[in-house]
Design brief:
Elements: H1 8-14, E1 29-32, E2 41-46, E3 52-57, E4 62-66, E5 72-76, E6 87-93, E7 99-105, H2 108-111, E8 114-120, E9 125-133, E10 137-142, E11 148-153, E12 159-163, E13 168-173, E14 180-185, E15 191-195, E16 199-203, E17 209-214, E18 221-226, E19 232-237, E20 243-247, E21 253-256, E22 269-272, E23 279-289, E24 292-300, E25 308-314, E26 318-323, E27 329-333, E28 337-341, E29 347-351, E30 366-367, E31 373-377, E32 385-389, E33 394-397, E34 417-418, E35 427-428, E36 431-432, E37 441-446, E38 452-457, E39 460-465, E40 470-475, E41 480-485, E42 491-496, E43 501-505, E44 511-517, E45 524-527, E46 533-535, E47 543-547, E48 556-559, H3 564-567, H4 570-579, H5 582-593, E49 609-614, E50 619-621, E51 625-633, E52 640-647, E53 650-660, E54 666-673, E55 679-686, E56 695-701, E57 713-720, H6 734-746, E58 755-762, H7 768-781, E59 787-793, E60 796-798, E61 804-806, H8 816-819, E62 821-822, H9 823-832, E63 836-842, H10 859-865, E64 873-876, E65 886-887, E66 892-893, H11 894-906, E67 914-916, H12 917-932, E68 939-941, ...
Parallel strand pairs: 50-56, 57-58, 57-59, 59-63, 63-64
Antiparallel strand pairs: 1-47, 2-3, 3-4, 4-5, 6-7, 7-8, 8-9, 10-11, 11-12, 12-13, 14-15, 15-16, 16-17, 18-19, 19-20, 20-21, 22-23, 23-24, 24-25, 26-27, 27-28, 28-29, 30-31, 31-32, 32-33, 34-35, 35-36, 37-38, 38-39, 39-40, 41-42, 42-43, 43-44, 44-45, 45-46, 47-48, 49-51, 51-54, 52-53, 52-55, ...
Helix pairs in contact: 4-5, 6-11, 7-9, 11-12
C-alpha cells in the first residue's frame, strides 16, 4: 500500500520560487466541501481545556472541531488561488481557545513572501496577517502561557518568535541548514527544535540558543517532544524508524525506544502521555490486522524504556500526534483522518475521509465507448466497485451494467511505455519521457488508434504523440491515479487524489466535466467548468464557490445550491456527450427547453453573509428572552430583504420587509423568545437572489425546567392516487399507500403525540382544488409545538423547462399549469409551517405512459425542500430517474411498505423504543433494497439546521 512520505511533497514546494505579486483573485473558485478534509491533514492543535481540536490540510482549509464528539464547528477559509497557494501545513490554537493561527503555502503568490494568518475562533474571521516570511510555514505553536507564537520555516530559514500582544517579531534564528518540521516547549518555556539539517537545538526561556547537538539516530530529525517534567526529549525521524530519548537539559543521548519489526518506515511523530509514563510514536509503519494493512501508533511503557503495543489507527501516514488528559492521544493522518486513542489503547473517536480512494485502479478503471460511463472503485485497487453513467446521471453500486466497459490500453505495436507506475523516470520505447524535477508518473492510457497516449502524474495530466512529443498538459487538483481513453477517442477520463473523476477533451485537454462520488455511496455531484451541475439528493452541498475577499480577510464559501435556479442544469450535462463542448451543450439545452441564456457572474448574484456575534456557540442560558447580535455583509450589493430566525431548523420569528444596504459589515440585534430546552439557533439573511448560508450556534438551557411537558400534535395531509381520470396514468396501490401510512401513524396518538389529526385525500377526492385546500389546512393548523407530515403517492412530472408538478386525480398532462399542482405550491406551504415538517414522496412511478415529453426527476425538488431556508426533512421513494416499484405481493409500493414497517417498530435500531429520522432513513434504505433486489434506491435529505428527532415510538 502506497503511503505519503512525510516531507516529499513539502520539499517539492519549497524548491519552487515565489514569483507573482498583487492580490488574491476575485473570480469564484469551485471547491469540494464534504465537512471533512479531502487531502492529508498535516497538523493538529488542541486548546488547554480540550474543548477544541484544530486541523490544517493541503485542501486549503483549517477546520475547528469539538474534541469530545468530533463535530465540525467551523471551517476557516484563508485566501487561496489555483495551484499550491493556500495549502495549509501548520495550525495552532491559543491555550485559551480564542485564536487560531494557520500557515503554509500562504500569501506567496501575491506578496512574494509567506504569511501566517490569525483567526478569531468564535467568528471564524481572519483578523491579522503576519507578513514577510521567506518560505513556507511548516510548524506553529503558541507558548503554554499564550504570550508567544513560534513558527518553523522551510528551507534554511529557521524559526521565528512573535509576541501575541501585537504579533511583532521579537526573536529569530536563521542559522539552520534545512527545514524545521518540529519543536516543543517545556513547562518552564524552554524551546527544543528539530531540523532536517540533522541537529537538535535547545533554547532558554528567553529564546536564546544554549545547546546544539547532532541527533543521535537518523540524519533527518522530524518531530520532537518534551516529557511533561521537561527532563527528557523524544525525537522521531523522517529517514529511520528510530525513536531516541535525549536529555532535556544538555541533549545527550539517554536511550532508544524499541522499534523492532521495522526497518523501511519511520516513527516520525512523537509525544508523551500527560503523566510521562507512556511514549507514543507514529509515522508510516504498518502491520497486518485481520488481513488488512493498517498504519500503527506504537505505545511504550515506562517512558519508552518498557514494552510496547501497536495500535492500528489509519490507512495512511500518521502526520501528527498530540497528548490528551487521561494519557491518551489525538492523531491525524494522510488519508485524511483524525481520531483519539484513549489511555488504554482503544480508539474512542475516529473521523474518516469522505472521498473515494482512487489509488492504483489502473486496469479496473473502465470506460464505455463514448466515455460517458465509468467503472471505478471506492477503495484502493478498484475494490468496492460502482458504475456511473454521466449522460443519464445514474450511480449504480456494484459492477452490473448492460454496457461494454473497457480497461485502458497499456501497450500497442508502436507505443511501449515502461517504468510508468510510481516512477520519476518513465520511458517510451526505451527513451526517457521528460517530466519536471520530482514529478512522478502514476497512470497510463494509450488511445485506441495507437497515435497518442496520456500519462497521469503527481501534478499534471499529459498527452503525447507516439514519438513522445507533448501535445498538451493540464494541471490536476491532485495526483492522477488512473486514466482511460474512450473507444471513440474523444475523451480521456481521470481518477484523482481529491476523489474526483474528471472528463477531458482528448483533442486539446480542455476539461468538460467533473464527478465527486461521496464515500457514503449515495450522494454525488457532477459539474461543468462553468458551474452547471446535477446532483443526487443531498449532493449539491458537496461543492461550492470559494470567493476571496482580499489578502487580509477570510474568504466566503457558497454551496452551489445557493444558485440552484440558474446553475442546476441536468439538461446541459446530458448534451456534453453528443457535443464534447460545453458552449454547444449550453446552446442546445437552452434551445430545447426554451430558456434564454443569461450571462451573469456568480459575484453579481451572491447571497448575504450573516454571522452570529453573541451568544457564542455552547453558551448556557436561563432566560426565555434572548438578544442575538449579528454582523451582516452583502457582497452583491443587493439589499437584504429578510432575516429569518430558526430554532432547530424551523422558523420562529425574524424581520421581513427589510431594505438593508450594508456598507461593509453592519452589526444588528434581534430579541427572541426561546424554548426551555437545549436547541440550535440559526440566522438566515435573504436578498432577491437567494438565502445566506445559515449561521448557527448551540445553546444549552440551564434555567428552570418546565413542570409539565405537553406532547406535540401531529397533523397529516396524506394524498394517494391510483384511479386517475386519465386511464393511462392509473396505478395499483398509491391510494392504499396513503391509507396504510395514515393507519400506522394514528396509532401514535397518546404515545409520541397528544393527538393525530388527519386529512386523507385518495382517488376522486384528490383533485387539484382539494389538494390546495389541504395544503392551506396544514398551514393553518400546525403550530410551532407540532409536527406536520405530508405524504404524497401518485405521479410526478417535469415539464420541458424542468419545473416539477404533482398530478392530481383530474390532471391533464397537456395542461400542467392549469390542472396540476406546481412544486411552488408545495414548497411555499411546507417552508412556512411553524413546526417541524416531514415529507414522504412516492411520485416516480413508471412514466412510459406519459409520452416523450414527460420526464420524472424529483431530485431538484428534494434538494430545494431540504435546504436550510426551507427546512423540510424529505423521504423520497427513489433517486433521479429511477421508478418506484409496487407489487401485488406487498399490496403496497416498496417505499411505503418499508416506511410502515419502520414506524411500526423495525426502525428502532438501538432498541430504545424511539424511531428517529436517521433510524428510519437507515431502515428504509436497506428494506427497499431488499424488496426490489437493488432496483430502487430511496433517499432521505435533512437540512443541516435540523437535528435528528423522533417521529414515532414503539
Amino acid at each position: 500500500m502506497k503511503l505519503i512520505k512525510l516531507t516529499t511533497i513539502i520539499l517539492i514546494l519549497i524548491n519552487a520560487l515565489y514569483c507573482l505579486a498583487g492580490e488574491p483573485p476575485r473570480e469564484p473558485i469551485l471547491r469540494i466541501e464534504t465537512e471533512m478534509h479531502t487531502t492529508m491533514i498535516n497538523r493538529l492543535s488542541i486548546d488547554r481545556d480540550e474543548r477544541f481540536l484544530v486541523t490544517g490540510s493541503f485542501d486549503k482549509t483549517i477546520r475547528l472541531w469539538e474534541l469530545r464528539t468530533g463535530k465540525l464547528l467551523k471551517t476557516l477559509r484563508p485566501p487561496i488561488d489555483e495551484g499550491k497557494e493556500g495549502m495549509i501545513y501548520a495550525v495552532a490554537i491559543s491555550p485559551d481557545g480564542r485564536y487560531i493561527a494557520g500557515g503554509g503555502w500562504t500569501g506567496g503568490k501575491w506578496d512574494k513572501t509567506a504569511s501566517i494568518y490569525i483567526f478569531d475562533r468564535q467568528r471564524g474571521a481572519l483578523i491579522k496577517r503576519i507578513e514577510g516570511l521567506p518560505e513556507v510555514i511548516l510548524h506553529l505553536s503558541f507558548s503554554k502561557d499564550g504570550r508567544f507564537l513560534i513558527a518553523g520555516l522551510g528551507g534554511n530559514n529557521g524559526i521565528r518568535i512573535y509576541s501575541t500582544k501585537d504579533y511583532s517579531l521579537i526573536k529569530e534564528d536563521k542559522e539552520y541548514g534545512d527545514s524545521v518540521f518540529g519543536f516543543d516547549l517545556s513547562s518552564d518555556r524552554r524551546l527544543v527544535v528539530s531540523s532536517l539539517d540533522g541537529y537538535i537545538r535547545l533554547y532558554d526561556k528567553e529564546f536564546n540558543l544554549i545547546k546544539k547537538e547532532k541527533a543521535p539516530g537518523g540524519k533527518r530529525p522530524y518531530h520532537i517532544s518534551f516529557s511533561p517534567d521537561g527532563s527528557k526529549i523524544a525525537v522521531g525521524y523522517e529517514d529511520t524508524p528510530d525513536v531516541d530519548i535525549i536529555s532535556g537539559y544538555d541533549l545527550k543521548s539517554l536511550y532508544k525506544a524499541d522499534t523492532s519489526g521495522f526497518s523501511e518506515c519511520s516513527f516520525a511523530s512523537v509525544t508523551w502521555s500527560y503523566d510521562g509514563m507512556l511514549l507514543y510514536a507514529g509515522g508510516g509503519c504498518q502491520k497486518l490486522f485481520d488481513d488488512k494493512w493498517k498504519v500503527i501508533i506504537r505505545r511504550w511503557d515506562n517512558g519508552g524504556k518498557g514494552g510496547f503495543i501497536d495500535i492500528p489507527v489509519a490507512e495512511n501516514t500518521i502526520m501528527h500526534i498530540l497528548p490528551l488528559k487521561g494519557n491518551g492521544v489525538a492523531f491525524a493522518s494522510g488519508e485524511p483522518s483524525f481520531g483519539i486513542v484513549d489511555g488504554v489503547g482503544r480508539i474512542s473517536l475516529y473521523k474518516g475521509n469522505a472521498i473515494a480512494d482512487l489509488r492504483d485502479q489502473w486496469e479496473k478503471f473502465l470506460l464505455s465507448y463514448d466515455g460517458s460511463t465509468v467503472r471505478f472503485g471506492y477503495e484502493v485497487l478498484g475494490n468496492s466497485p460502482a458504475v456511473f453513467d454521466a449522460e443519464k446521471r445514474e450511480l449504480k453500486i456494484g459492477e452490473k451494467t448492460s454496457l461494454r466497459l473497457l480497461p485502458p490500453i497499456f501497450k500497442t505495436e508502436g507505443i511501449n511505455v515502461t517504468d510508468w507506475k510510481s516512477n520519476y523516470n518513465p520511458r517510451l520505447n526505451g527513451k526517457p519521457i521528460k517530466l519536471e524535477q520530482y514529478e512522478i508518473s502514476r497512470s497510463l492510457a494509450i488511445s485506441p488508434d495507437g497515435k497518442r497516449f496520456v500519462l497521469g502524474t503527481g501534478w499534471l495530466l499529459r498527452c503525447f504523440d507516439k514519438d513522445g512529443n507533448e501535445l498538451w498538459n493540464v494541471p490536476a487538483p491532485g495526483t492522477v491515479w488512473d486514466v482511460n481513453i474512450s473507444g471513440n477517442g474523444r475523451v480521456v477520463v481521470a481518477g484523482l487524489a481529491d476523489g474526483t473523476i474528471r472528463w477531458f477533451r482528448m483533442e486539446d485537454g480542455k476539461e468538460l466535466l467533473a464527478l465527486f462520488p461521496h464515500k457514503d455511496k449515495r450522494r454525488w455531484v457532477l459539474w461543468t467548468p462553468k458551474g452547471y451541475y446535477d446532483a443526487s439528493p443531498g449532493g449539491e452541498e458537496l461543492i461550492g464557490w470559494h470567493i476571496n475577499n482580499g489578502k487580509d480577510s477570510s474568504a466566503d464559501f457558497y454551496p452551489v445550491g445557493r444558485f440552484r435556479d440558474r446553475f442546476y442544469r441536468p439538461d446541459i450535462i446530458a448534451k456534453l456527450f453528443t457535443t464534447y463542448d460545453e458552449e454547444r451543450a449550453i446552446a442546445l439545452a437552452n434551445e430545447e427547453s426554451g430558456r434564454k441564456r443569461v450571462e451573469t457572474s456568480i459575484k453579481d448574484i451572491l447571497p448575504p453573509v450573516i454571522t452570529i456575534l453573541s451568544p457564542a456557540d455552547g453558551t448556557s442560558i436561563s432566560k426565555k428572552e434572548l438578544t442575538v447580535r449579528y454582523s451582516l455583509r452583502n457582497p452583491s450589493g443587493e439589499p437584504v430583504t429578510a432575516i429569518k430566525v430558526l430554532i432547530d431548523g424551523r422558523p420562529v420569528s425574524g424581520q421581513r420587509g427589510l431594505i438593508i444596504k450594508p456598507k461593509g459589515e453592519e452589526v444588528g440585534k434581534l430579541n427572541i423568545t426561546v424554548p426551555e430546552r437545549d436547541f440550535e439557533l440559526s440566522l438566515i439573511a435573504e436578498n432577491k437572489y437567494s438565502a445566506s448560508v445559515p449561521a448557527t450556534v448551540r445553546l444549552f438551557w440551564r434555567g428552570k425546567k418546565e413542570e409539565f411537558i405537553v406532547k406535540p400534535k401531529l397533523y397529516i395531509l396524506a394524498i394517494g392516487i391510483s384511479r386517475y381520470k386519465d386511464e393511462h396514468l392509473r396505478l395499483q396501490f398509491a391510494h392504499k399507500d396513503a391509507e396504510d401510512f395514515v393507519k400506522t401513524m394514528k396509532k401514535q396518538k397518546g404515545k409520541l403525540y397528544e393527538d393525530v389529526v388527519v386529512k386523507l385525500l385518495t382517488d376522486e377526492r384528490a383533485t387539484k382544488d382539494e389538494i390546495l385546500d389541504g395544503l392551506d389546512w396544514l398551514q393553518k393548523e400546525t403550530t410551532h409545538k407540532d409536527l406536520a407530515m405530508l405524504f404524497i403517492a401518485g405521479h410526478g412530472i417535469n415539464d420541458t423547462a424542468g419545473i416539477y408538478y404533482f398530478l392530481p386525480q383530474n390532471a391533464d398532462i397537456e395542461k400542467l399549469k392549469r390542472t396540476a399542482i406546481a412544486f411552488s405550491d408545495i414548497k411555499n406551504t411546507v417552508s412556512s409551517l411553524a413546526g417541524k415538517v416531514v415529507m414522504f414522496a412516492d411520485t416516480c412511478h413508471s412514466g412510459n405512459v406519459m409520452g416523450k415529453r414527460a420526464v420524472t426527476d424529483i431530485t431538484g425538488v428534494i434538494n430545494e425542500l431540504a435546504s436550510a431556508e426551507n427546512g423540510v426533512v424529505v423521504f423520497a421513494s427513489s433517486t433521479g430517474r429511477q421508478y418506484s416499484l409496487e407489487d401485488p405481493e406487498w399490496r403496497n409500493g416498496a417505499f411505503t411498505k418499508a416506511v410502515v414497517e419502520g414506524i411500526q417498530g423495525k426502525a428502532d435500531l438501538l432498541g430504545k423504543g424511539k424511531i428517529t429520522v436517521n433510524m428510519l432513513d437507515t431502515f428504509i434504505a436497506e428494506r427497499v433494497k431488499e424488496l426490489t433486489k437493488g432496483r430502487q434506491t430511496p433517499v432521505t435529505t435533512k437540512p443541516v439546521t435540523v437535528p435528528d428527532f423522533p417521529v414515532a415510538v414503539r
